[in-house]
Specification:
The chain is of the alpha+beta class. The chain has 10 helices and 12 strands. The chain binds alpha-D-galactopyranose.
Length: 347
């Protein structure tokens, strides 16, 4: 057992492909250069962590049978979720620091889960660690999230976005062209009702698939048109068209067709707004503002929606001006980064 471990996990921003992961579909997120580090001195039977973002520590026994979602303070739910999912052989004393905005839709919770799982000695490949941390998220938050966030955090590749097939869990790195930059901007509204509304959207997608008798991954527009329930039809249409947009976006990035990629982001936002109903007035206004800004190739909401962040693809050199205009406390130029990693520190 090493004396001291530092595990770092990046956050992620999704460039395109939202609300498709739990439908066995396609997503294209990238790990970013904002993230969370857990430093731990392993030992004992309790995980005890302090956080730079909360006055109260998280204290969880490794054999705890308490319900993770009821742990206090609130951030300790994620610690309890990881402990319940990973079942580490030893606890540890340590601390958490993060450069990610918390709860903004950049997967601060997935970053904490993965960094902590690795610090606690969780073994396995990117998919295995991601699955354990997805389960930790389910236990901690009660939100039936897909695999995108945790898998992007474990599998990130510097300079690349990741095309993830959420059926096979195959990860294909797609280079982000050097003449493009990615900017993330908070809409100003904290994400609200994410838990219940997210679960309701997922249930609608599953109801549409059950009605059609096939996963939406395999459905085509003609199948969708046959759905008689107008709400299920719109939800399914989003998933089917979004999967197609992810494929086209990956091809556009690979070909260096940045205007083409940007146009797909704008279409994705309209679909999330009109068919999937997960945008907010603030996100719509933000995406419109970004879309009309110099050097912006395309913009959309990113992640679950219901508040949180927008993402823009911009021409190289245009990102900093956007950050300056919108304010560095709510806008960030983010770089495609490597996935989570562990270091043994000298005592
Ligand atoms: C959240 C979930 C992901 C995914 C997105 C929407 O980030 O954690 O699994 O479903 O929403 O694409």
């Amino acid at each position: 057992v090493p004396e001291r471990i530092a595990a770092h996990a990046p956050g992620r921003v999704n460039l395109i492909g939202d609300h498709t992961d739990y439908a066995q579909g396609l997503v294209l997120p990238m790990a970013i250069d904002l993230g969370t580090t857990v430093t731990l001195r392993p030992g004992g039977t309790v995980v005890e962590l302090t956080s730079a973002d909360d006055r109260e520590p998280a204290v969880v026994a490794i054999d705890s049978t308490d319900t993770p979602s009821e742990a206090t303070p609130a951030w300790a739910r994620y610690v309890a979720g990881v402990v319940a999912s990973v079942r580490p052989r030893s606890g540890g004393l340590g601390n958490v620091t993060s450069t990610l905005p918390i709860g903004a839709g950049l997967s601060s919770s997935a970053a904490l889960e993965v960094a902590l799982a690795l610090a606690l000695g969780c073994q396995g490949n990117a998919v295995e660690v991601a699955r354990l941390c997805q389960r930790a998220e389910h236990l901690a938050s009660g939100v039936p999230c897909g695999i995108m966030d945790q898998l992007c955090v474990t599998a990130g590749v510097a300079g690349h976005a990741l095309l993830i097939d959420c059926r096979s869990l195959a990860v294909t790195p797609v280079p982000v062209p050097p003449d493009a930059e990615v900017v993330v901007v908070h809409s100003g509204r904290a994400r609200t009702l994410v838990g219940s509304a997210y679960a309701e959207r997922r249930a609608a997608v599953e109801a549409a698939a059950a009605t059609l008798g096939l996963p939406l991954r395999d459905a085509v527009q003609a199948d969708v048109a046959g759905l008689t329930d107008p709400v299920l039809r719109r939800r399914a249409r989003h998933v089917v068209t979004e999967n197609a947009r992810v494929r086209s976006f990956a091809a556009a990035l690979t070909a260096g067709d940045l205007p083409g990629a940007g146009a797909l982001m704008v279409e994705s936002h309209a679909s999330l707004r009109d068919d999937f109903d997960v945008s907010t007035p603030e996100l719509d206004a933000l995406v419109e503002d970004l879309s009309g800004s110099p050097g912006v190739l395309g913009a959309r909401l990113t992640g679950a929606g219901f508040g949180g962040c927008g993402v823009a693809l911009v021409e190289r050199g245009a990102g900093q001006a956007l950050v300056t205009r919108l304010g560095p406390s709510r806008a960030w130029v983010v770089r495609p980064s490597a996935g989570a990693s562990v270091d043994e520190l000298s005592p």
